[in-house]
Request: fold
Amino acid sequence: MVNGIVLGKPSNRGIDSMHSFMLLRHGYVVAEGWWSPYSAESNHALYSLSKSFTSTRPQEGSGSAAKVLGTRYVFPANDRKLESLTLAGDGKDGAATLITRIDGVERRIACGRGTWQKARMAWGQLSEQPVAASGAWTADDTFTARLCFYETPFVVTVTLKFVGQELRYNSESNVGFGPTREPQLVGKAQ
Reply:
């Protein structure tokens, strides 16, 4: 036992084989490994899609939304055509709704806290399609939302860092045909 965690062989826990192991922290791979004859290039069976999504859900921080909820942040002209963003509380268990204005069109994305909220939406270059969204305060000044377009391989992580009267908007996709991390945008409170 180490720090209250029971360690041992997987076979002692009824696990007959393991293909791989991956440890993520703050959305980044910090450790990974494969057991012979498997490799990163091998196809792997996925037995529980819901558990896989649950493990990608943002983890709750100790942040407080009171200062920024309902504030509209306006962005200068940009390639993504993101004009404004408001983070609104929906009054249900700390869940939030992202309200974006992109190329003149307002979009609302309900982000469950500790759950996935299903909807249909378009995002960036992705056409309108089914999405599941989850969000949480991951630091005192940071709200992180994950948008899983579950009929495709795309999962978009949106990080909103509130600094004074500014909103620093970062967006990253898990896969892409080019860079997966987009340049940061900075909006001003209105």
The chain has a mean pLDDT of 79.
